[in-house]
Amino acid sequence: MTEVVRAQGLRVDLGGATILHGVELAVDDGEVVGLLGANGSGKSTFVRALVGAVPSQAGSVRLFGTPLGRDVPWHRIGYVPQRVSAAAGVPATAAEVVTSGLLHGRRLVPPRGARRRSVEALAVVGLADVADRAVRELSGGQQQRVLIARALVRRPDLLLLDEPVAGVDLPSQEAFARALAGLVAAGTTVVVVLHELGALQPLVRRCVVLRHGRVIHDGAPPRPSPGHDDPHHEHVHPHDAALADEAGGLVPAVRWQE
Amino acid sequence: MSVVDEVVGMLGDPFMQRALVVAALVGLAAPVIGTYLVQRRLSLLGDGIGHVALTGVALGWLVGNAMELTPHDALAVPGAVVAAVVGAVTIELVRQHGRTSGDVALALLFYGGIAGGVLIISQAGGTNANLVGYLFGSISTVSTGDVWLTVVLAGLVLGVGLGLRSALFAISQDEEFARASGLPVRALNLLVAVVAALTVTVAMRVVGVLLVSALMIVPVAVAQLVASSFRRTMGVAMATGVVATVAGLSTTYWYDASPGATIVVLALAMYALAAAARPFVRRRPSGPHDPHPQLDDDVQVATPGSR
After folding, report:
1. A180 within a domain of the structure (yes/no)
2. B181 CB near a chain A CB, below 8 Å?
3. Nearest to A170 among B41, B176, B298 (CB)
4. I need a surface site. Which of A54, A240, A252, B46 has the fewest CB within 10 A?
5. Does residue A240 sit within a domain?
6. Nearest by Cα to B241 from B22, B31, B18
7. Can you tell me whether residue A191 is helix, strand or coil?
8. Would you list the DSSP string of A201-235?
9. Which fold has domain B3-276?
């Protein structure tokens, strides 16, 4: 097995405070790793440091065996940031936003067939019919799926997702779990930041838990804390293992369905 | 004289010919870079650069005086180019390092640029009246050399702004994602800053530093009202820019008015018109179309009469 992600002694300071203290992580090809932790534990910062979106003060990150920088095979990596909105100051269609995912370190101009590939990626998240609508006119959940399509359009071997299902309703979460199961079955390595496993429970076999910027657990998914294990407790990400389980074996051709 | 004769007369005037070429090029190029500035919510960057360019004008004047060049302002435009580029790169570096918020950095630049310009021009033996041409534009005095300089600079702005549009779109839409894709974000940001500075110095001759940003931003504001894609926004903005500059300048051939102010007022009138006409020109009227996606409810609600 080859190592896809390798972080060693990673320290990140933001605004004068140390957010990550010597974090270590190694992810092998084909693994699905959940990054858990309370709000402010540093899990988002960790994923952002892994893709070079925030600078690190100490330690190193290697992606596909290459240190962070120009030589990383960026076309094999898909990143979905945690975002409330996919819109910026000027109107842009969903297809235009997704097409920007085809650019990477060695490609500043979209390849041939960019439009067709963008619409295909939008179809995976069930949004092919809104390809030419302005993203600012889409709902929050739809905008989040546009960002997922932007990561999928380059057909990544490594997918890094920052809370992809936060604030998304239950049917969409399950649809997302089904689409992700298809990618995992095809061999995609996934690192996903989550508050709780929710609909992704059957996919995630390994969990890394951060607390106060340090790894406090790396192994089998931990049990939820007391008060969060009651099926009737109130939270925004409903568990429904039965539905997601049967999606586990679906082939990559699976489509986002509503 | 008929209207046709009048127009032929205007087009036959060599002053007007040069001015029209410069105005059309600026109207075409300024909204291209303006689109990226609006996209990254830096609409006022052009203003900041314009104010710094004024200091550059004064510095060019000072150097030209010292070297006893004639005319005294031979180095004014080159000085403006240098100062604008330095100012734009400084803003970008301050923004990247995030020590001062971009907002405050812009404000500091505004005041420093104007105060510096007025201070230096008085040292150079000029008067504030000498600055007025740069503050409000002096398109009627463009020389053949100015036309060629404008052609080269506008070509550069269009080449970068259109040639690299996908990459510039990516970094302006979502800088963090662009960074996480390995795009040379820092280099592209500096490129946008430099090109914005060149645009400002080109547009300075047409409308003056005080209104320079309007040519970059107002056409984009007009386009936003009628377009839903980035591509269309930029296209409509460029068309709006050309119509505003050419029509505004032509107006001043018959009516004695400031060309710069006329152009900007015309562009703003187009914005008002587009805003008023918006309900009729939108491609997809939201009549029978339900904007809400069809999804199951997260909560159970007792509907009246069901229980």
Report:
1. yes
2. yes
3. B298
4. A252
5. no
6. B31
7. strand
8. TTT--EEEEEETTEEEEEESPPPPPTTSSSTTS--
9. ABC transporter involved in vitamin B12 uptake, BtuC (1.10.3470)
Q: Which of B177, B232, B283, B296 to probe the A interface (max A CBs under 10 A)?
A: B177
| Nearest-angstrom CA–CA distance, A90 and B222 | 11
CB B260 within 8 A of CB B23: no
DSSP string, B42-107: -TTHHHHHHHHHHHHHHHHHHHHHHTT-SSGGGGHHHHHHHHHHHHHHHHHHHHHHTSS-HHHHHH
Q: What is the residue whose two structure tokens read 């270590």?
A: A24
What's the complex ipTM? 0.83
Per-residue tens of pLDDT for chain B, all 307 residues: 688 888 888 888 888 899 999 999 999 999 999 999 999 888 888 888 888 888 888 888 888 888 877 776 778 888 888 999 998 888 888 877 765 666 777 788 788 888 988 888 888 777 777 778 888 888 877 888 888 988 998 999 999 999 999 999 999 999 899 999 999 998 999 999 999 999 998 888 788 888 888 999 999 999 999 999 999 999 999 999 999 999 999 999 888 888 889 999 999 999 999 999 888 765 554 445 555 655 556 666 665 554 4
Task: Tell me if A88 and B174 make a contact (CB, 8 A cut-off).
Answer: yes
What's the CATH number where A187 sits?
A: 3.40.50.300
Return the residue of A nearest to B178 by Cα.
Answer: A104
Q: Is residue A224 part of a domain?
A: no
Return the number of CB contacts < 8 Å for A and B: 121
The one-letter amino acid at A157: D
Q: Where are the domains of chain B?
A: 3-276
A228 domain-assigned: no
Most B CBs within 10 Å: which of A61, A93, A100, as the mutation test of the B interface? Answer: A100
- For A195-209, b where at least 16 C-beta lie within 10 A, e where not — what string? bbbbbbbbbbeebbb
Q: Which two tokens stand for residue B276?
A: 């008023």
pTM of this prediction? 0.84
Please give the tally of structural domains in chain A.
1
Could you tell me which of A212, A163, A191, A192 has the C-alpha nearest to residue A42? A212
